[in-house]
Amino acid sequence: MRDRPRQHRVPGLSAHGSDESGPSAEGVYALLRTSLLAGLAIAALLFPLAAMAGLSAKAGFNSIDTLSVAVTETDPPLTSYVYAADGETLVSLFYDEFRRHVDLDEVAPVMQQAMVSAEDSRFYTHNGVDYRGIVRAMVANNSSGGVQQGASTITMQYVRGALQLNAETIDEVIAATEQTAVRKLREARLAMAVEEQLTKDEILERYLNQAYFGHNAYGIFAAAQVYFSKHPSDLNLQESATLAGLVQAPSAYDPITSDQTQALARRNWVLDRMVDIDYLSHGDASQVRGLPIELDVSDPPNSCIGIEGTPSEFGFFCDYFRRWWREQDAFGATPAERERELRQGGYTIITTLDPELQTMANKHVNNAKSNESKLAHGAVVMEPGTGRVKALGLNRVFSYDQKHNGPHSNPSFDRKGNYPNTVNPVLGGGAEGGYQAGSTFKIFTMLAALDAGYPLDYNIHSPNRVATSFVSATTACGGRWCPKNGSAAMAGNRDMWSGFGMSVNTYFAQLIDRVGADKAVEMAERMGLQWRSEGDAYYASEERRSGWGPFTLGVSDVQPIEMTNVFNTLAADGLYCEPLPALRIIDPEGHDLDAASPRCHQELDADVARAATDAGRCVTETERKGAQCGPWGTSKVVGTLAGRPIAGKSGTTDNNRASWFLGYTPQLTVGAFMADPDYIFNPVGTGNTSTSKETVGKIFRDALKGEKVLPFTPPSRDIMYGD
């Protein structure tokens, strides 16, 4: 994060506005009565510096020269641009003030001339203060009995805006903008000091990037985009004159929402001023004067809402990125400071989002069979070895407009639900809750067992129901936890291959009893899980985790992104990488920041991860040489659809309240789930238990089409058979 002021401009206090206009007829007579005052004002501008003591804009500045240095170094808030991984597809912008810096040579010369003509025709000849303008303004103001005109040059307007941007309190903003002689004197003296430190071109460049043009367009880049959908280097004469005319009073001369009468008059006035100072011939001005103002209005996206206010298919990924950014210490001390830096820091961010994968994920989650509106169906696509999130698909629209949503699915809530529009982080991010993931949690027990030295062929007789040593509140088995299998056909002698592939509850209930529930819970923490409910945190506490046997059947809440990353770690042979949505983060000076670098460490022994993968292949394959997968796998449909070896695990919860599948190849990891995020007690129904499996299989099929089938690295014989 750059060490510089970042302050919102106070609404209603404009930093800009031209004071350039001709004196009234009554002002001629008043000149005689105001000449003395004018002389005193001019003298004050040239008065020794000591006379200006106490007039600095900020506490701590002891001289105009010192303050002028701060003014010349002021950086206005800049828009951050967020792109997909291709560096071209725009995901969104983040800004409080839509502004992007451009160098002066990137601004069409005719635009530069129009601005000088409209705001300060003697810009290139004065020293920051236009003395003729001071006299003219005082004549006009005296005749009107109030402040009707000023004498602000472009340099003075730049100074005024810089003082506002550097302001730390409302009082300092008021001091920079109030209509008083003291403020004008300070502003004028600062302008002269700035002119000694910067060239005219440098001042004009800063002013063009600072000026407000209306419709949240700050600076000439934003103005050219908002009004004409083009780069400022491409502005023509009529467009330049229109924009230059806006700065004095953007609302009064607004050509978008008004009938353009005043905007046309103001534009033509600018053309006349350009003729007066020989920037433009009478003939060229006449050709444009009769033309209408032809706009090509753009509404730049902001904060993950799509272009021109339309919902974006990238919205949920964009919001995940924003939540990730708020957690990064590199961008500030608090989440609020970090978000302000994103909205004002002018970063260029290349995210990990793959537009093609995103389109695939969205298509498949929205086309899934039995995809009832109340149920959320989502998919996460990640890259092994980096943790990069490639796509986040969800059968929802990222939008704040929820007035047409249906009723909430929780019968006790009398309000709109979150379908089809929502901004809730359904797929994860931040400290929000999650969903039970059922038998996918068996992976933690198996990893804990492998890590403790149990081999894949570790055999346990697994009846249809088994009593364990874990205490239970129920009395069905004498106060002991005694789960049963999903079907009687699962019973028999099982090892990790068949127990995992067939998802045999009684095998894993006995395995966690022997390995220790505390070891399985610890393994989940090592793999990135957080405890997202009071109940989960209670049972996962150090003093209670050893008695949490049901943990192996997925009774804890988990977010889809973090659970997908568990299997992403296995795909990378035990290399754990934090989920990462950023590929590159470039600051306004063009420097790549380290915050986008993958954060990885070897969490599991590679042989342990490979052994888990070997068992995971039994889930999607029924026959495989060298492995005892059992008579069936729970998710053969995934391997069939993908057309290549897939390792992974399915999961359903009690009463089918959620269904999951998490799978991986050496190149890609895909996780999918279905649940009701508004009311988790709503079942997905037996017809949807295979939906997540089919979605994952189809994403693999399409995403890896034409890609080489990479083999999984087999585990050692020792870890398979305990030799």
TrEMBL record:
Q: Name the keywords, alphabetized.
A: Carboxypeptidase, Glycosyltransferase, Hydrolase, Membrane, Multifunctional enzyme, Protease, Transferase, Transmembrane, Transmembrane helix
Reactions listed under catalytic activity: Preferential cleavage: (Ac)2-L-Lys-D-Ala-|-D-Ala. Also transpeptidation of peptidyl-alanyl moieties that are N-acyl substituents of D-alanine; [GlcNAc-(1->4)-Mur2Ac(oyl-L-Ala-gamma-D-Glu-L-Lys-D-Ala-D-Ala)](n)-di-trans,octa-cis-undecaprenyl diphosphate + beta-D-GlcNAc-(1->4)-Mur2Ac(oyl-L-Ala-gamma-D-Glu-L-Lys-D-Ala-D-Ala)-di-trans,octa-cis-undecaprenyl diphosphate = [GlcNAc-(1->4)-Mur2Ac(oyl-L-Ala-gamma-D-Glu-L-Lys-D-Ala-D-Ala)](n+1)-di-trans,octa-cis-undecaprenyl diphosphate + di-trans,octa-cis-undecaprenyl diphosphate + H(+)
Q: Which domain of life is it from?
A: Bacteria
Q: Does the keyword Transmembrane helix apply?
A: yes
Check the record and name the Gene3D superfamilies matching this protein. Biosynthetic peptidoglycan transglycosylase-like, DD-peptidase/beta-lactamase superfamily
Region feature (Disordered): 1-24
Answer whether the UniProt record assigns the keyword Transit peptide to this protein. Answer: no
Annotated transmembrane regions: 36-57
List, for all copies, the residue spans of the domain called Penicillin-binding protein transpeptidase.
378-685
Glycosyl transferase family domain location, by residue? 95-274
Q: Which InterPro entries match?
A: Beta-lactam/transpept-like, Glyco_trans_51, Glycosyltr_51/Transpeptidase, Lysozyme-like_dom_sf, PBP_transglycosylase, PCN-bd_Tpept
Q: Which Pfam families match?
A: Transgly (PF00912), Transpeptidase (PF00905)
Q: What is this protein called?
A: Transglycosylase domain-containing protein
Organism of this sequence: Glycomyces niveus
